[in-house]
């Protein structure tokens, strides 16, 4: 009797955890606005045509998703994404395959405005290359794992993930600068587009005067030397704390 009750409670607990993750991945107007705002804050371009996407790839703005031992592409017409999004796919796929023993399936990457789906919003970020669509796993345990993992990253503020039902898939927008910092803080690396130099790899997308952090620097000292506030530098670089590292490139805003 005790064993049956314990097993029943375990099943209920797992079910509730899975339901909670699914609830957190529900789409909303707020979610759409957040993704769109992130794309604008990163000054990403919304490509209109397939020709524009191809030219962007030739310039090195996008990298190509080719599939590997951990993930595969399924009917992806434009297999290009931003470097941070490619890093996300590679890391998630490796974790997914280790947990589930099967490949993650990517069903969409950059999608120009001219190929906008009938049920998509005019604020879709697919034309920027920051988003991918992932097929829902058919195996229940794998679906629960993917929901939990995406929900955790969503909660960390580095992606915005939505579980869609028509057709069934997960839509994931990767926020380039926050995700890059997230990966670097965990000892990982983020691929840099060919047109980006090593001196600007960690710089924010917006222009302006920049400063490369040297060993021993503090955000307070940099702000004082440039006669701006710490808060202004944090805002200009999307920094959630005053922690900085040697080699990091900061945009220095004009004093107000």
Description:
The structure is a single chain. The chain has two domains: about 20-180, Muramoyl-pentapeptide Carboxypeptidase, domain 2, CATH 3.30.1380; about 200-250, Membrane-bound Lytic Murein Transglycosylase D, Chain A. It has a five-stranded mixed beta sheet, with helices on both faces. The chain has helices spanning about 1-25, 30-40, 50-60, 85-100, 140-155, 175-185, 220-225, 230-235, and strands at about 65, 70-75, 80, 105-110, 130-135, 160-165, 170-175, 210, 250. Helix 1 (about 1-25) crosses helix 5 and helix 4 packs across helix 6. Mean pLDDT is about 80; it is low at about 1-20 and about 195-210. The chain is built from eight helices and nine strands. The longest helix is centred in the first third of the chain and has 23 residues, at about 1-25. It has about 260 residues and is α+β, with helices and mostly antiparallel strands.
Give the helix/strand layout:
Elements: H1 2-24, H2 29-41, H3 50-59, E1 63-64, E2 71-73, E3 80-81, H4 83-100, E4 104-108, E5 131-135, H5 140-155, E6 159-165, E7 168-174, H6 176-185, E8 210-212, H7 219-225, H8 230-237, E9 249-251
Parallel strand pairs: 2-4
Antiparallel strand pairs: 1-3, 4-5, 5-7, 6-7, 8-9
Helix pairs in contact: 1-5, 4-6
What labels describe this entry?
256 residues, alpha+beta, Muramoyl-pentapeptide Carboxypeptidase, domain 2, Membrane-bound Lytic Murein Transglycosylase D, Chain A, 2 domains, 5-stranded mixed β-sheet, 9 strands, 41% helix, disordered N terminus
């Amino acid at each position: 009797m005790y064993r049956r009750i314990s097993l029943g409670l375990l099943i209920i607990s797992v079910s509730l955890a899975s339901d909670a993750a699914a609830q957190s991945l529900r789409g909303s107007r707020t979610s759409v606005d957040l993704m769109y705002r992130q794309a604008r804050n990163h000054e990403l371009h919304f490509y209109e045509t397939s020709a524009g996407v191809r030219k962007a790839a030739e310039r090195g703005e996008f990298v190509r998703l080719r599939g590997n031992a951990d993930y595969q592409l399924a009917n992806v017409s434009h297999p290009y994404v931003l470097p941070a999004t490619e890093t996300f796919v590679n890391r998630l796929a490796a974790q997914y395959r280790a947990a589930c023993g099967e490949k993650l399936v990517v069903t969409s990457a950059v999608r120009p405005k001219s190929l906008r789906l009938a049920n998509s919003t005019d604020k879709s970020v697919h034309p920027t290359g920051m988003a991918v669509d992932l097929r829902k796993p058919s195996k229940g345990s794998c679906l629960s794992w993917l929901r939990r993992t995406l929900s955790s990253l969503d909660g960390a503020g580095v992606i915005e993930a939505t579980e869609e039902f028509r057709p069934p898939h997960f839509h994931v927008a990767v926020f380039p600068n926050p995700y890059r910092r997230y990966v670097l803080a965990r000892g990982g690396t983020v691929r840099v587009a060919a047109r980006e130099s090593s001196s600007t790899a960690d710089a924010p997308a917006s222009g302006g005067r920049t400063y490369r952090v040297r060993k021993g620097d503090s955000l307070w000292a940099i702000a004082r030397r440039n006669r701006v506030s710490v808060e202004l530098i944090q805002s200009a670089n999307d920094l959630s704390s005053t922690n900085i590292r040697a080699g990091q490139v900061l945009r220095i805003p004009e004093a107000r």
